[in-house]
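quick q for whoever's on today - can somebody do inverse folding on this one?? i tried earlier but teh output was garbage lol. tokens:
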């Protein structure tokens, strides 16, 4: 393995899911739903395979999917994109992220992250031969805030790109309009490209509104927005994601993507297009149900003695393990599958400063009620 990839030999999700399987544990670690997406969407994929939609689709993605993505974005947020030049279908958001960094950042450039960060950002920056800087989210009450002045202080003459993720994995933080406006001002002031990871855009709770960063003044021309069918329609295994942005930026993303995978899974594309066009009510119902399951898991973790933090969106809630007498969440998460048959993920797996985050574990609530209830029953035995 080349030196720059050695720190990325394994992923925390692979490690914790392997432990969960080995010990037949309730997997509240890796964030994937355990129920299927809309039945009619699954049927479109089945039919596409039967109808011979099994060869390379067009490089940028099938036209019907590109049109569905841009139509959805226009309907939801009033943001217009040319389906022919301003959207690119990718192999999940993961590839959109890697391709955006590889296609838009030079070796030696700096990429600014906020920490905790989704693990693929750091690995993609390393793949590009660039350097990352991570600015920590700050605790505020029982949640987190982004200190944009700290972000500003971390910008250097070499900073090329800022990566923003809202709704935020792993904390479930949803940035408010004031925060995003300050981020946008900083990006304009320092002429930064922005990679906005909005894969959980539809999973915001308690009546909150997701604000796409590209909708703020000065941002449309400098932002690549990434999203995915994975979280929208419960199909994390289909690996259909996309990048949206101005033509010049999408050209860079495509230049990298075409030599990473060339294209993304043909029969899934008409199915995702169908879902974007016809299953928005399903998405809303799924969000409401996830909000209920967030409450179920958060309440149960509180009862079990954890210091539960606020989750305003995503699949995840973070909890402080110190109130149950644990000092190191990494050791705690490693031993948990064997001890009580539950898997969780230590937040310090997503950071450059592990000491600061060593007290937090992330739990996923995107699981069936019976699974959550059983997980919680086992967690209560820790008391
Ligand atoms: N970004 C974030 C914040 C995620 O949580 C995930 C995965 N859950 C991804 C990107 C990758 O998405 P995909 O599965 O579509 O590759
Ligand atoms: N995004 C999911 C999570 O945060 C898992 C993705 C993965 O396994 N790479 O848990």
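ok took a stab at it. sequence:
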């Amino acid at each position: 393995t080349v030196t720059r990839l050695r720190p990325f030999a394994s992923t925390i999700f692979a490690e914790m899911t392997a432990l969960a399987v080995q010990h037949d544990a309730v997997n509240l670690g890796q964030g994937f739903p355990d129920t299927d997406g809309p039945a009619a969407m699954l049927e479109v994929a089945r039919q596409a395979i039967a109808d011979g939609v099994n060869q390379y689709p067009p490089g940028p993605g099938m036209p019907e999917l590109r049109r569905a993505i841009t139509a959805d974005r226009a309907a939801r947020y009033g943001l217009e994109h040319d389906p022919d030049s301003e959207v690119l279908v990718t192999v999940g958001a993961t590839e959109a992220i890697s391709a955006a960094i590889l296609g838009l950042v030079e070796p030696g450039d700096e990429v600014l992250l906020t920490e905790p960060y989704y693990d693929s950002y750091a690995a993609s920056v390393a793949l590009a031969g660039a350097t990352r800087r991570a600015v920590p989210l700050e605790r505020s009450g029982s949640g987190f805030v982004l200190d944009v002045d700290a972000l500003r202080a971390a910008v250097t003459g070499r900073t090329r790109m800022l990566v923003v993720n809202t709704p935020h994995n792993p904390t479930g933080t949803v940035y408010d309009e004031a925060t995003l406006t300050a981020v946008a001002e900083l990006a304009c002031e320092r002429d930064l490209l922005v990679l906005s990871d909005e894969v959980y855009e539809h999973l915001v709770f308690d009546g909150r509104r997701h604000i796409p960063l590209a909708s703020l003044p000065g941002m449309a021309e400098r932002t690549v927005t990434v999203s995915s069918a994975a979280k929208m329609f419960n199909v994390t295994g289909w690996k259909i994601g996309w990048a949206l942005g101005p033509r010049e930026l999408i050209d860079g993303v495509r230049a990298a993507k075409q030599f990473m995978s060339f294209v993304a899974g043909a029969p899934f594309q008409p199915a995702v297009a169908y879902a974007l066009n016809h299953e928005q009510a399903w998405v809303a119902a799924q969000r409401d149900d996830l909000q209920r399951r967030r409450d179920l898991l958060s309440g149960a973790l509180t009862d079990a003695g954890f210091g539960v933090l606020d989750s305003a969106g995503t699949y995840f809630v973070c909890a402080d393990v110190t109130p149950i007498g644990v000092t190191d969440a990494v050791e705690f998460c490693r031993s948990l599958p064997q001890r009580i048959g539950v898997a969780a993920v230590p937040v310090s797996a997503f950071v450059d400063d592990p000491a600061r985050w060593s007290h937090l574990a992330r739990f996923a609530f995107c699981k069936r009620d019976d699974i959550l209830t059983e997980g919680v029953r086992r967690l209560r035995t820790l008391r």
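fwiw The mean pLDDT is 97. also The domain at 39-278 is CATH 3.40.640.10 (Aspartate Aminotransferase; domain 2). so keep that in mind when u check it
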